Amino acid sequence: MNTSSNSETPTPTSLPIPQEAFDWYDQYAHGVIDRRTFMSRLATLGAVGFSMPVLLGALMPNYAQAEQVSFNDPDIKARYITFPSPQGHGEGRGYLVVPTARSGKGPVVLVVHENRGLNPYIADVARRLAKQGFVAFAPDALHPVGGYPGNDDEGRSKQSSLDRAKIEQDFIAAAKFLKAHELSNGKLGAVGFCFGGYIVNLLAAAVPETLNAGVPFYGTPAAKELRKNIKAPMMIQLAELDQRVNDSWAEYEQDLKAAGVDYTMHMYPKCNHGFHNDSTGRYDVENAKLAWERTIAFFKKHLG
Fold it and tell me: Cα 272 to chain center, whole Å?
């Protein structure tokens, strides 16, 4: 279990952003409350010294902060490609990033976005993996409706408008496509965040012959009746303050044990849901760094 300290993102006020503001954002981002309710709740914090610009600046994403690896980095080559998805929306599209030093076949990793499409943060995660020697592929669930629209609010709305079962089939098709890619050694890993964490859990349970290693970040498990199928080693990354997702862990752990799965769970202290996302105030520098180091080591161990 990680015991490193929490590192807060600086804000224009000396007061720390209250935890309830992060909780409200999580509820808004996952459709539990609408935008009007979210904004109304934030407004109540004005009485204790917080302006709306300060709160929104801390909570809403700023993707200029999320680029750790430039798309012009000479160590990688990135492009968009399509793949067939006959059980989903017919065709999928994603961001493929290949290490320039790659010669021949090697391990491949599917990168699965949150509930808002392939935003710049997720594209950067794919580039980070390529810098570590993996071929990374990040599909965009919003391809059937024109792709990620450039902002998360519209992205969430677009993703919620799509058939959930078809989205799941698109990611299953993407996993099979990547595993069979000409640059793949036949070893497939998957990492995902929030909704993407759920998709990683789903891949492990629904297509166990396809996935070789899974790292879901704060994702809920697949349907209970599927969990007995899981065969791939799993590294579960959870945030201590993420009660919504953490409530599902005890039962999921029982099912992983019953299935004989090789799994590890890391609970990161004083972290919110989304702590790995470096574009928002939920980002926790030290814990995100540790979680990512563990992720890379896990893939290197299990994918070769």
Answer: 14
